[in-house]
Amino acid sequence: MDPSESQIAEDALAFARANRKRIARELTDKSIYQEEAEPVSVFMAGSPGAGKTEASIELIERFPEWRILRIDPDELRERIPDFRGGNAWLFQRAVSPLVDAVLDEAFRRRLSFVLDGTFASYEVARKNVQRSLSAGRPV
């Protein structure tokens, strides 16, 4: 990583940390997503290009009355300044606090969600699944 790329990555992480709560509140808009008695956690995992995004969108479209929150790290990257698509790898560290903040809101507000990710980090994936199970959610 050259110095300018390092700076982009650091700036992206700083932006994510400073804006994570605001972004999480926007994505879990109370006028769209209501608290549920029995929220469900769905985790999509697989290689890039495997069809996770299409499958998660299809799942949510099949059950519009459920108002399921879709959490997509790729879409979260688009909210970070200097993201250009081809430089996604510079935003890996920055997207993690955003995903965590959205998950925090989903758990706090008892919202069902689909997390569309790669499970690239086993520890992060394990933590998120365990968090759901500990909250008594079907996974």
From TrEMBL:
Domain of life: Bacteria
Keyword ATP-binding: yes
One Pfam match: Zeta_toxin
Sequence ranges assigned to domain Zeta toxin in this UniProt record: 25-137
UniProt-recorded Gene Ontology molecular function terms: ATP binding; kinase activity
Keywords: ATP-binding, Nucleotide-binding
Protein name per the record: Zeta toxin
